[in-house]
Amino acid sequence: MDAGRMNNMLTMEERTMVRDLILLPYIDTMASNSMREMELSRNILAKAYLMAGKYIQKRIMQDTYRLRQALKKQNIKVEEDTNDDFILYYMIYYRGYQERFGMTRDVMRTEISLRLTQYTSDYGNVLKDYLK
Question: Distance (Å, rounded) from C-alpha 76 to C-alpha 10?
């Protein structure tokens, strides 16, 4: 057992999982909005973009399920708390403790961008493997 667990504190891995679980619904919403725009588009590559969007949404659902299961196994629960214009707050309940967790919108935008880049890269690798 690592030191964070022995002190009943959240480990860095658990904090990362909480952060990712919070961000995934926002990423899904952005992908959905983009796909809706693409459906209305006359772009000749619209179907290709929609396939990429569906792949990304499938990965988001898989990641969300995996994170929920892992956090549940660790007895960690995350609930939305208050939000203001700049910071979104969540309550984390874990192993008999609770902690308020906040993320600024700027940090969220950066993390979402990084995650979308990773999902797009993964989709590109799938296509690359398929086209070999």
Answer: 9
